[in-house]
């Protein structure tokens, strides 16, 4: 009996060890998998979560150039290379300058490269850059919109259950107010989103227009000859005007003189 009992106990011990090894092989891989999961890496200490930033860029650049037409062509080429486009443009010629003012929309990642490249087209007269981070503002507006839409939904449900006219009027006023606030918040968020999607750059460049060369001075005698010529020509014009006024008398005088001459010739001819 004892000889049969020992083999049974030995078999049970071996089976228990094998089951324990299997449990360990199941537990430890699961723990290893959990330690390498994205959730564990996201909450790991010392590793902050990355957040997309929404930044609004504004810039102004003024240049003095030597060749206006050449720079205009180069500006068009640079805008195409940097994925930018012209929003507004205004060209003038005044005060001895040929000027161009352009409002440019450019992707934020290309704002600084485009600004630096444009600055090489001429002599920089003025350069201003500003930026503002609206990430927190957009997040705040997004949370506000979520809260206001939930409030609008609650008021709409209460409005369906309202029974008295006073309660209906009060709830309708609250719904209208919440909807107006939602519209204003959406417009603000749209404005910030648009400004952060496209950076704005105002480019001004100008070329000085050379003044016309003055005519060489006239000699001292030339003005007197010119004045005498003008007086003589004025006299001729005055005589022509006078003859024009008395042309009937001239015609009558010439006709009468011709008739008188002919009558005299007839008197001198013998009969």
From TrEMBL:
InterPro entries in UniProt: DUF4349
Positions in coiled-coil regions: 141-188
First and last residue of the signal peptide: 1-20
Keywords: Coiled coil, Membrane, Signal, Transmembrane, Transmembrane helix
Pfam families reported in the protein's UniProt record: DUF4349 (PF14257)
Residue ranges constituting the DUF4349 domain according to the UniProt record: 53-261
TM segment ranges: 233-260
Name recorded for this polypeptide: DUF4349 domain-containing protein
Provenance organism: Hymenobacter nitidus
């Amino acid at each position: 009996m004892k000889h049969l009992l020992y083999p049974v106990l030995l078999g049970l011990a071996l089976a228990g060890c094998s089951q324990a090894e299997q449990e360990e092989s199941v537990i430890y891989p699961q723990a290893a998998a959990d330690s390498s999961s994205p959730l564990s890496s996201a909450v790991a200490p010392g590793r902050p979560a990355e957040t997309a930033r929404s930044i609004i860029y504004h810039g102004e650049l003024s240049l003095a150039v030597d060749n206006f037409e050449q720079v205009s062509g180069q500006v068009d080429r640079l805008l195409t290379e940097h994925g930018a486009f012209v929003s507004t443009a205004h060209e003038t010629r005044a005060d001895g300058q040929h000027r161009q003012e352009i409002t440019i929309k450019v992707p934020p990642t290309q704002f600084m490269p485009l600004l630096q490249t444009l600055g090489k087209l001429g002599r920089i007269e003025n350069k201003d850059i500003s930026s503002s981070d609206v990430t927190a503002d957009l997040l705040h507006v997004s949370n506000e919109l979520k809260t206001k839409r939930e409030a609008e939904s609650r008021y709409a449900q209460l409005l369906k259950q309202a029974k008295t006219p006073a309660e209906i009027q009060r709830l309708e006023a609250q719904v209208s107010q919440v909807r107006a606030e939602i519209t204003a918040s959406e417009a603000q968020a749209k404005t910030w989103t648009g400004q952060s999607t496209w950076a704005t750059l105002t480019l001004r460049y100008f070329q000085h227009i050379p003044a016309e060369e003055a005519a060489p001075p006239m000699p001292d005698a030339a003005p007197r000859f010119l004045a005498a010529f003008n007086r003589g020509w004025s006299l001729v014009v005055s005589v022509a005007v006078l003859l024009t006024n008395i042309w009937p008398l001239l015609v009558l005088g010439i006709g009468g003189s011709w008739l008188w001459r002919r009558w005299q010739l007839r008197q001198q001819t013998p009969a």
